[in-house]
Amino acid sequence: MASTPMDIDDISSLASTPALNITRTLPTANLPTTAQVSDVIFQFRPTKLFSREEAKGTKQQPHILSIDFDDPGDLCMTSESDETIQIYNVKEGRHEKTLLSKKYGVKLAKFTHASSSILYASTKQNDAIRYLSTHDNSFIRYFEGHEGTVTNIALHPGSDNFISTSVDGTALLWDTQTKNWTGKLFLNGPTLAAWDPSGNVFAVASPSSGSILLYDRRNYAKAPFSIFDVLKARGPADPAAAFSGWTKLEFSNDGKHILLGSRSGGHFLLDAFDGGLKSYLKKPNGGTRRQAPGESEVGGIESCTGECCFAPDGRFVISGGKSDLLVWDTLIFPDDNKVLEPTHVLEEKREAAVVAYNPRYNMIATADQDLMFWLPDPHM
Prior knowledge:
CATH superfamily: YVTN repeat-like/Quinoprotein amine dehydrogenase
Number of strands: 30
Family: Belongs to the WD repeat SWD2 family.
Protein name: WD40-repeat-containing domain protein
CATH class: Mainly Beta
GO molecular function, one term: chromatin binding
Main location: nucleus
Keywords: Nucleus, Repeat, WD repeat
């Protein structure tokens, strides 16, 4: 199939910036490649700041809507409210290129398992998902099927199949090799989806019904094999948090837990087998000003990928907020009310509305309007 040129192609870069020394042996931290997350998680400090204000020549900075890393961990990508995709070289600590999508808009940009191709959702004209080759800046395919705003794109862990959810009440399953969806679920307001690490199970979150539905990939046309009642499992959270404000759905890499991010006063750590609440991860200063996917953007900018995530070891949860970066150790028992206070607070004055942990390196990226790279400080 012939590639379709982008409406506008641009590979301009920001002003040159000093290199950030990141290698597989992490010499700056004097730690081997196999350093456990637990050895460095409390040593993270803001290390490299990327600001686009100077490059744009205006004080109107865009908001960053999503952050994603490629599988090797060498590239970091953001989608931004000015309809651009920004790609950064992690090891060299520099801006790599800018891609424009002015005609269709852009959000939810995600790498496929090939670092040179990405998926992203449209924000205007239609609700198609676009499959782009960054090598020659051309579209490979359009995925048309949703009739409302796309709220989430979840890539299968072992293949380039993916799930998308939308405010149109559907969750669609796709194979990147064909333009037509391969499966369709009609649900009550699905807004988030996630694959378990084996790729055999996927979950769809429906805040309007206060539930998380689990499906067997091979039998998804049947009823979900399990339904988790978030209202029942909410613990000390306000009842309203069980039906609104969900920002993130993610399985831990060991498959034992599900993280349900919330823009309220805390996140929910659920047992992936029975849906019970393991801990309510309390945010002392509350959430960010971003809205959750699918919610009205009045009063805030939509946060497409959420302010929280698991570390690759599945033990720690990292979350942004109005300031600072919060860390919870899930091995620590919560109090009698199932509340778990942050185990550590990594100081930072800037709001961190979007958070992602590099899958290959001990490195964290956070963003609101500026992108920040975090590395362990060996002197801590």
